[in-house]
Amino acid sequence: MSGEVLSQNEIDALLSAISTGEMDADELKKEQSEKKVKVYDFKRALRFSKDQIRNLTRIHDNFARLLTTFFSAQLRTYVQITVASADQIPYEEFIRSIPKMTILNVFEVPPLDGRILMEVNPNIAYSLMDRMMGGKGSSVNNVENLTEIETKIMSNTFESAFENYLEAWNTIVDIDPMLVDFEVNPQFLQMVSPNETVVVISLNTMIGETSGMINICIPHVVLEPIIPRLSNSYYMQKEKKDREPDEIKRLESHLHYAELPVVGELGNSEFSIQDFLLLDIGDVIELNRQIDQPLIVKVGDIPKFIGQPGKVNKKLAIQVLDIVKGGDDVDER
Question: What is the domain-level CATH number for residue 290?
Fold first, then answer.
């Protein structure tokens, strides 16, 4: 009742109830002073804030775009991958939610501890493999009887695809993903304890006419060292942070070796195309500059210096006499 606005009739009815004894004022005060209890499920511990979940979603939005580009190039067909949801749940609940037989790729991501699981729906995995082998991308669910060749093709494909994960995370941490296990039965895979909190990012995946889900399961222990970096304040501080002195020096050193064209113009002239076509060896072109006038020295296409021609060690040279003020606003004539 603390957040509500009462009408005048409700106020009158409340005062009337107190005055007639139907309602005790002390009981009202006691009710207001009592702490409201919120139910908390310790088996479903929430270890990530909404802010951190949003940033994890942003990272995997980028990963989904990279995967779309990667698979489109590999399969040469329509591919669309987008983030469907991002939730934090117990590991046991995640294992119960995926098919009993599916494609499970386990990755290590040093320097972070622990492992990340990428679960790929069999329909998507078989459609992908069929397309890579020259088929139309038809999907069959025969994950229980994977041959060694099919296992090798799938594991190599998803290992190559997961290399895009380091680019998605490069604004937070530099990781080096590597495939360490390939499994089809979730019951044989125990990465963390059943009650351990994991973040599950579900990706809606469309390959040709086949659709399914790709789930990225990240245990809390993997993200624990970098949790502070997943807050918005970290991004704000990073954007305001000035370039490191070493980076500035490195840029300056590269800039010193940049090459620019330097041209000393003796002058210019204008004549018709007909006269140009009649030019022959020995003809003389009259320029618009006197022989005793200084030259304009251009860096790129911009006038920068005034100089005079000469020779140095039997080579043609230009001696800089002055600096042009105003760049290309100078009147060359």
Answer: 2.30.330.10
Summarised one tens digit per residue, pLDDT across range 271-289 is 888 888 888 898 888 888 8
Query: Whole-structure pTM over 0.70, yes or no?
Result: no
- Confidence (pLDDT) at 29: 57
Any alpha helices (H) in 259-307, and if so which ranges? 273-277
In terms of Cα–Cα distance, which of 186, 185, 182 is closest to 95? Answer: 186
Place 331 in a pLDDT band, splitting at 50, 70 and 90. very low
> Which helix (H) or strand (E) is 54 found in, with range?
helix 50-75
SS3 of 92, please? Answer: helix
Identify residue 182 by its one-letter amino acid code.
F
CA atoms within 13 Å, Cβ hemisphere of 144: 3
Domain that holds residue 311: 262-329
DSSP string, 222-251: HHGGGGGGGSHHHHHHHHHPPPPHHHHHHH
